Amino acid sequence: MTGLNRTVLGWLALASAGFLLLPWYAIEDGFWRFGWLLDGWPLDPDYAPAIMLLLQGEKPWLWPVAGFLLLPLVALGRPRTAPLAQGVLLAAGGLGVAYILGQGFAIGIPGWTFASLEAAFGPLGDRQFGMGYGALLTATGLFFLFTLGCAARGAVNGDGFVVGSIGLIVMVVALFIFFPVARILVSALQTNEGALSLTVFLDKLLVGKIWGLDCVYSHRACGVAWNSFALAVAVGAGTTLLGLAFALVVTRTGFPAKRLFRGLTVLPIITPPFVIGLALILLFGQSGAVTSLLEWAFGIPASRWLYGFTGVWLAQMLAFTPIAFLVLIGVVEGVSPSVEEAAQTLRADAWTTLRTVSLPLMRPGLANAFLLGFIESMADFGNPMVLGGNFSVLSTEIFFAIVGAQYDQGRAAVLALVLLFFTLLAFWAQRRWLGRRSYTSVTGKGDAGVPVALPRRFSGLLFAVTVPWALMTAVIYSTILFGGFVNLWGLDHTLTLRHYVDAFGVTVGDHGLVWSGGAWNSFFTTIAISTISAPLTAAIGLLTAYLLVRQRFLGKQAFEFGTMLSFAIPGTVIGVSYVLAFNVPPLELTGTGIILVISFIFRNMPVGVRAGVAAMSQLDSSLDEASLTLGANSWQTIRRVVLPLLRPAILAALVYSFVRAMTAISAVIFLVSAEYDMATAYILGRVENNDYGLSIAYSSVLILVMFAAISVFQLMVGERRLGRRSGPQAGKLDLGGQPA
Amino acid sequence: MSTTFGGRAASVRFDRVTKAFGDFVAVDSVSFEVDAGSLATLLGPSGCGKTTTLRMIAGLELSTAGRIWIGEHDVTGLPATRRDVSMVFQSYALFPHMTVMENVAYGFTVSGTPKAEARERAEQGLALVGLKGFGARLPSELSGGQQQRVAVARALVLEPEVLLFDEPLSNLDAKLRRRVREEIRDIQRSLGLTVVYVTHDQEEALAVSDKVIVMRNAAIAQEGTPRELYEQPADRFVADFIGDANLVEAEIRSVDGDLARVSIGGVEVRVPGRGLPVGRVLAAIRPEAVLLEGQGGGGLAGTVRKAAYLGKHLEYTVDSPVGELFVIDRRIDDPRPAGAGVAIRFGDRIALVPDAD
Ligand SMILES: Nc1ncnc2c1ncn2[C@@H]1O[C@H](COP(=O)(O)OP(=O)(O)OP(=O)(O)O)[C@@H](O)[C@H]1O
Ligand SMILES: [Mg+2]
Questions:
Q1: What are phi and psi of A513, to 5 degrees?
Q2: Range of the domain at A30
Q3: In sequence order, what DSSP letters do the residues of B21-51 get, joined into one string?
Q4: Is residue A177 one of the residues assigned to a domain?
Q5: Are residues B181 and B253 part of one domain?
Q6: Distance B9 CA to ligand 1 centre (A)
Q7: What mean pLDDT comes out for the span A9-23?
Q8: For the ABC transmembrane type-1 domain, which residue ranges apply (chain A) (predicted)?
């Protein structure tokens, strides 16, 4: 029973420290700056802890928080089964957090945030800014007192750690996914004066610029929604077909260069998607290498065919096909050969077998690949930006609505909703199409069958498609790697290191090294932000996976759906929603590095969850239970039994979230600031200034850095595998899920 | 330091315990008691709720209703970590990334026992199950039977108040099963442990238990010593489940003190009456209690339908006026071919079962 007291005391101490010691409000200089310690703390109102503010007669609405901190003292010394102790923890924690959030939303920079409150209580004459360390710690401490109360009441077998984890994840997902998305909805419904109005919303929604169908019968452009939708369908279908072709070639034919094809799967992970668009410009743009060649050899005049639907589609196809391949190769390999052999013994020929057995079994893979291509295309911001020309899509329109001269939050919100609508529709359609049927054909039983060879003419067709495509990819990547070394692409092909010096120059100045290159700032920021967010992403992803696989609790299905759903929210939407939600108190985060870290965590969380779920489902749950019956608590069980056995999955989650943070653009572009610029955003900026040399040089450096990261990781995991002795449980471990 | 394992054995008591998964009731208002220092088995067909019952003792499932006592303490709401109960899993659940020594010492490690002491006691535990010197190996480097014993040692060294086994032998071959079950029984006896043991093998249950609890459809069908269950089954289900009894309809003609005069298809036998009234009854006739004679002797006329030679005895299936009878005959020198006519008489290994329906 002493255990409960100790934990209560711990969280209470944390909450009180937040209230008594640390600055309650956010520090202007940034989260990681500690100048305030010497600069008037604890008395200066800018840096004062809540208690100091209150004693100075300011922010009187914070007084109740002190009450919520005193209340749990009643619970100390009582057994955890005492209803009084439970009630006190629940009340102090739950109401305390609710109150802190409530006052944060109710009172902002202009005083009362809602007119109705002003009407009820009269003008406030005071204001508050975003919450800082103090508020964060106090709310966190109180929140975990609440979950302790739930556990003491017997939630999830009374396991404090598990209840706390569930609470934590529900809380952060609500705060950083659902709240921002809901905020979009509010923004879409708001007039410029802040009143809610459905007609304004409909006015903004039902305009020709979004839904117009002019292109069907005239030469004018269609609405952006249709543009995005058509593009996404074309890309989804195209990448799925092409990915399938590659997967079939690799698994079902004797093609010699299989391993090379497999190597292709790494590329999209380490390449920011718009870099492909950039390379396309260098090849097929008006002064591109291929264009010039054609003009010289055949007199075909240069044209702008690349800029528009075709170019964007081509770039996205090149960028996302490997993702489809990655998904489909697992599925194609998973189709059990003995099922196919069974079909053949039932007198089906090779073609019929493929059509009636193999392909239907690949259905989940096909649906998944399509969905991924569809969402990636919808969310892709860089390629339409670089190649779109007059062809505009939702993601770029959203960007211009927020960043451009028009600065119209409402319009951005409406566009984001349309985008979200399409991806959720695709998500829903996919789930419906797959239904509840089982498609698993991989069993624990050894499968000695041999995959059925493809019909001759069909495999000929596959080669005809895949080989040129692979060559094209190779050409593109060579362009990326070598384009950085010529002076001015298309005009002056003398070799030079100029771009690298511009970007990554280092000079020796009076005070030691000077990072004089223009790219260093964003490069270091990118590495730092990715390094910080990777372990957090992995941790929260794996914790979620643990809860999903190992624990039973009320509302688990909703929990699962919520975490799955974030996977269908495009980065662009996350970006806008963060701008809308975190620009104002109580959570003022725009312009900080934290918002970048947070956006990466929640963008990449599904990857961690999937890797964790895949790996954890292969660990027999009796291992955990054995540990519990031997007296370990769930935290000890995780640390000593689950984590060591999941090491490969952890590494995978770490590296992939690191790399994805480095290549992401669609959410990032909304969230970068002068101080916290990211590599991808920086490069895109250079591209807009037609500074292709530097952009391409920077891109290749990024690609190489990430290639190195992935290789080191593969090496580590590979060695571990060799070093492991095979045993009934150990042998089952695998690298876990692949990234989405 | 002389460690005496099992000095803290405690009794287990279920008081109207129910466990529901959603709408599905897996254990329905079950009450029983297992004495300290005794071995009880939970026996029953697949899906009847044995594992669920065991997991509720361990605290891996919390009961939906009712109270659970271990020794003097009401542990109903306590999770597994805080109960003094260890469990040996069907799959052994040895931690594959730890050595045998680390596995056995795990319980001490997580409770913060000093390293040296943990090691010493783990070694004693290994010695007890005959695996001295195997400490440095990984579980994957042991045979199935050895892994099983490591799992027992790991649970044993914590000197739990109650030790649980969930079908511990189902992964072993027949010979090893017999040996390991004897070992478990020996250890339990010599250390005076309280053990609850789940199986669906009735022979295993009868062989090792002080008490057998037969479960059916989430409830207890009967509990008692092996002999009680065998000789006085409470109903048709138990009689059928324990031993390969032939269940035939019979009639009590008269009761005379402890004995009853029973007619089975017209043949009369005198068997313990179990306080049953005159009238219809079921007779559970053990296969050894059916005696086959050459045609012409007294008794029921029957025909051998199948005959099989099993080395130590013969097995027959015989058609008779009271139904098909399964017979074990130890007189292997005098086989009867299929199709032969026989006269059937009954020995005294017949248990009367109330005929509920
Ligand atoms: N987590 C669960 N959720 C829903 N139903 C469950 C769960 N665990 C067990 N059951 C159901 O409860 C019933 C009893 O299960 P239990 O595992 O106790 O059976 P058992 O007697 O051990 O059977 P076996 O001999 O096959 O191991 C079964 O019908 C099972 O389907
Ligand atoms: Mg079971």
A1: -70, 140
A2: 3-153
A3: ETTEEEEEEEEEEE-TT-EEEEE-STTSSHH
A4: no
A5: no
A6: 28
A7: 88
A8: 225-430, 523-713
